[in-house]
Structure formats: C-alpha cells, structure tokens
Amino acid sequence: MFELTDALLCAQGPVRSPVELSMEPEFRRGHGSVYAALDQGRIDAGGLRRLLLGVSAAARPGEPLMFALDITPDARPDAEYADERVMVQVRGKGGDKFLPGWPYSLLVGVQWGDSSWVDPIEARRLRPSQEHTDVTIEQITGLLADLESTGRLTGGDPPPLIMLDAGNYATDISHALTGRHVQVLVRLRATRVFYADPEPRRPGEMGAGKRHGQEFSCSDAAKRYAPDIDLTAGSARYGTVRVRAWKGLHQKLTRTGRWAGHPADERLPIVRGTVLQIVVDRLPDGRKPTKDLWLWHAGPVEVDLDLVDLLWKAYLRRFDQEHFHRFAKVYLGMARAHLSSAQATDRWMHLIMAAYAQLRLASPHVDDLRRPWHPRPEPGRPLSPYRVRLGFRRLRAKLGTPAGSPKLTRPGPGRPKGSRNRPKDKRPPYRKTVTTGNEHRE
C-alpha cells in the first residue's frame, strides 16, 4: 500500500481507478496486487489518526486548536453486490437525491493563512446501525483522547473548537459533551426557535415554575430582543461584517429522536448556549447574500467580545474542508475505487487521507512545476494542493519509499479443474425506519 500511495501522489492527472495506478512507474508490482492490498491489507486506523494528528498545524498562541467535521457521500447506486450500503444524500443541480452508497464522516484540522489547506485526521464510515449524531460524538471524544495522549492538548490550553455544518443536532451534541474540555460551533438552519431563561418566580407564587422564557426566532426579527454582544468588523472578502450574540438560549426539547428513550419520570434537560447572527455586505464572488448565517456555540468558556470575533472568523475557515472534498474526489479519486467491499473502501479512504497529509507536508519542499499557462504564485503564498502534486514525483525520487522491493514469485497452481463460478448474492441497501418513540399505546 506504500507504493499505491506513492503512485497516487505522483500521477500527473486525476485518478480514474485504483488499478490504473499500477501503470505508474512508482508502482513496481502487478495490477492484481492493487486490489489484493485493498482487500487484504491491514491499517491501524487509530494509529494513523494519531500520526496525522501529530503532524497537524499548531494553534496560534492563546487560541484553540480548530477542527471541522462534515459528511461526504460515496454514492454507489448501481453496485448491487456491495455490502453495508445505506441511503446517502447527494447534492446536484436538479435538487438533492437519496441514493445507495457509503457516507463518510471526515475530520480535518483547520488553520489560518492565505490558503485552503487542511489537516486530514480521520475518515470514518457510518455503519447501517449507526446514527450520524452518535458517530460525531464518538469522533469528538476520540479526538480529545488523542490530543491528550499525543501531548497536543494540556490543561492550560484553550478548549479545542469543533465546527459542524447544518444538519447536525447542536443541542444533542452539546449535551453529550457537557463537562468535557471542548467547545462546539454548529451552523443553524434559519427556522430554529430558542428560548431564554424564565423570569425569577415572585414571592409566594404557587405551582411549578416555568422552564422556558421569552421566545427567540432566527427567522422572525420581531421575536428577537437586544443582543448581549454586538460587533462590527471589516473583511476584504465580505465587506462590513456585523455579528450579534445572544447568550443563555436553549431549545424546547421533545421526546423524539435521541430523546425518545429518556426516562418518563425525568424532565428533559435544558441545554444552554450562545446563538450568533452573522450579516455580511457581500460574498467573495461579489453577490449579495440572500440570508444571514446563524451559529450555535457551547463550551466551558466565557463568551466575550474577543471570542465572538474569533468564532465568526474561524467558522468561515470551515469552508476550506469543502475544497478538500472537491480536490480529493476530482484528483485523488476518493469516490473512484468502485469496490464491492465496504472494508476495502475504508482502506482506500485511509490512503487518500494519508496522501493529502503528505502533500501538505511537502508543500514548502517541492519545486513549482506549473504548466506554461498557469499564473505565477504570489510571493509568500503556499502552493495549492494541485501545484504540490505536480512536483511531488521529483521530491519522491529524492526521498525514496518505505516499501520494500518486490520479490520474485512463481505462477500459482491456478484454478482447480472442474470448479464452477459461485455468483454473489445481491445486497440491497439498508433503509432506516424513523420512529418518534411517542406512539399511543393502550
């Protein structure tokens, strides 16, 4: 698999399939060994995650480490014999579609700077029996444990900042991470409704006290009150940026979804956090924004003006992960394996993450072998992942490879005489049935 990764990095064009990498000079074995390595190879996923975490970029002094989590689909609608497929959401010009495939939750490190580089950490596939929220929580808790074991996080460091896109249940994730040294920043849909704490009870007032106070609506400006923090800043890409923050808001939970199994004799929890509204003058391409950006923040830190200024800037860096997804799919063949085994596809994804990490580490060491029609890079600006890949073959010739030389073998005995083909069984995708947990029972 070392030579397969080398061929992946040194190929001059987009990767069409893993077997085509056997034609690259860096791959010295037969084409059959490509699929044999993916099918029978062994990769320590935990060790690889800790290794990639150890070479990720450090945080700026006094600021938290920043990470982003997002789902990317590997749609396989025609792979009738592929195992463990579920329904994945695929975005397109004609609207979103749900197709059979494998969803992967990708964890990357986000950094400052004038580039779109990220630090790939982990690619974890969602099994048919797993929920998206549960996998997200497991990845975050595993990340915290790895940060402590590798010495990247100590008791005096700020809590790491985990950024998530819309579609994640911000309240559920925040409640599961309560008491941990981490803060989450989740994008909200504009239809979300929150509530402030109720007013203190009057002396002598009887009955159970109210749990929810004044209503706060992200979509209705008439149902908002004055923010606790109001910040105005300037940005070269977005013009004037105004950020408002409301502290101590919570959602009204119901006994559905993750809370369906909550004990009937116990009240649902109150999960408080800060809601942020980000309003910009323009988008980077010059268009006017059609809606505001809403964020949810929760963590063991005091929300002040400096933190609010950090949060809105940090979340805009989360979009670098989408550039990573696009580059990995177009040039590194992330969705080009077309394997029938989900475990073999997991190994291919691990190789993609390791290959991109090598590109980032090689960025300051490769020669700029741009094409004649490519513009010159700006002084002091790092090369893009595409430019680094163009010059990686020359760097690899100097560094060598950890793979051993292939050994000569004799032809095998071949197929036994009289044996017959055993066709595989078709494996339909798993389809989840959503239950609310509050059905009426006699």
TrEMBL record:
InterPro entries: IS701-like_DDE_dom. Residues 2-250 form the Transposase IS701-like DDE domain. This is Transposase IS701-like DDE domain-containing protein. Residues 433-442 have a biased composition (Polar residues). Residues 398-442 are annotated as: Disordered. It comes from the Bacteria.
